[in-house]
Design a protein that fits this description.
Elements lengths: L11 E5 L9 H13 L3 E4 L13 H13 L3 E6 L15 H6 L3 E4 L4 H11 L3 E3 L13 H10 L6 E2 L3 E2 L14 E2 L3 E5 L10 E3 L11 E3 L4 E12 H7 L7 H6 L4 E6 L5 H13 L6 E7 L9 H8 L7 E5 L10 E3 L2 E7 L2 E7 L2
Parallel strand pairs: 1-2, 1-3, 3-4, 4-5, 10-11, 12-13, 13-14, 14-15
Antiparallel strand pairs: 5-16, 6-18, 7-8, 9-10, 9-15, 12-17, 17-18
Helix pairs in contact: 8-9
């Protein structure tokens, strides 16, 4: 695994908009940029960053702006300005040869998965998932934001589960309202067969556990290590079978793999079909655990609806409702790192090592 050099205070961070621009949230974005400068970094932006719309610019322009930062020796790391919907369009325009010649840390969250996931699985270069350049606008900063800044600087600290998360998701306020206690739901398979349904033990608070053939056991725990890979599953789903999809080869080269998935708006049925397709394609070879964040937009679906289907796919531990992904607060994850995940009693930790 290739780990790029971390930026130091005084170094330059490049911000680009490979998906959406930030024209609709300039004040928030300015606050985030000020945070980065307060950490001692210089900041340069490409031309499309402050554009409005779900596309910051034409795909070829977005790709070339990303390439400009790749080729600039003064830029030590590249941050996506924002998420969006159309990052996948830029993949044909990326200068992959420049990336291989001069690997840099590429960081993003949500739609930039299309870049991060490909860079790690196809080119064996570690990437950071969990924050965009516009993610540092809370005042005061939350622990998850301070952790992200620490990891960006090379302090790859252990991240522990948080106390509260944003269940309300009121987008009219400047910062989310942390109103619900965090509880990581852990499921352990008892049997070895995947079909028919497994018997499960769980410390989850899901409804109707008898219908899942589960028994409550608060004492169960996991302590698992493996190579970490994942991102927003809504994006990964659209890469399956494309020329940019080398994930099966990537996981096949690893001895142990931990997958993590950030679910944005997939229904339980769509998530199930996507993961089953990935399983058929060999994505889950050598997998030791699968970790899910909290679903951002579940519509009317419940946790039970998701787990009832997921249990049919995996015969390894599943963690559900963890502190990753769109629902804040969230952890920063390094794709490609050797990672240790521990969980018991509804809490957990993620500890990454750069081998």
């Amino acid at each position: 695994m290739i780990y790029p050099a971390f930026p130091n205070p005084g170094d330059t961070l490049g911000i680009t908009a490979p998906s959406a621009g930030v024209g609709h949230k300039i004040d928030s974005f300015n606050t985030s940029v000020q945070t980065l400068r307060e950490q001692g970094y210089s900041v340069v932006e490409t031309g499309s960053v402050r554009m409005e719309g779900v596309r910051s610019n034409y795909a070829d322009i977005r790709g070339e702006e990303f390439n400009e930062l790749l080729r600039d020796p003064d830029v030590k790391a590249i941050l996506a300005a924002s998420g969006g919907e159309f990052n996948i369009e830029v993949l044909p325009y990326i200068d992959w040869k420049a990336l291989k010649r001069h690997p840099k840390w590429i960081a993003g969250a949500s739609d930039p998965t299309n870049l991060l996931y490909v860079i790690t699985t196809k080119y064996n270069i570690a990437t950071m998932y969990g924050f965009n350049a516009g993610s540092f606008d809370w005042r005061p900063l939350h622990t998850f934001q301070r952790n992200a800044l620490a990891i960006l600087s090379g302090n790859v600290l252990r991240q522990d589960s948080f106390n509260m998360y944003d269940k309300i998701r009121d987008f009219t306020v400047d910062a989310p309202i942390l109103d619900e206690p965090v509880h990581w739901d852990l499921f352990l398979p008892v049997g070895r067969e995947v079909f028919p349904a497994l018997t499960w033990r769980t410390n989850s608070r899901l409804p109707e556990p008898d219908k899942l053939n589960m028994a409550y056991d608060e004492s169960i725990s996991i302590d698992i290590q493996g190579r970490l890979i994942g991102g927003c599953i809504d994006c990964i789903a659209k890469l399956i079978g494309t020329p940019y999809d080398e994930a099966p080869d990537f996981v096949g080269r690893q001895r142990d793999v931990i997958w993590y998935f950030d679910v944005f708006e997939m229904s339980p049925e769509e998530l199930y079909r996507t993961l089953l397709q990935m399983k058929y394609c060999g994505y889950f070879v050598n997998t030791r655990a699968v970790v899910f964040g909290r679903v951002m937009f579940p519509d009317d679906a419940t946790d039970y609806n998701y787990i009832e289907l997921l249990r049919r796919i995996f015969n390894v531990p599943i963690l559900w409702n963890t502190d990753i992904g769109h629902v804040k607060p969230c952890m920063t994850l390094i794709n490609g790192s050797l990672t240790r995940i521990r969980s018991s009693g509804g809490k957990g930790s993620i500890e990454m090592k750069l081998d």
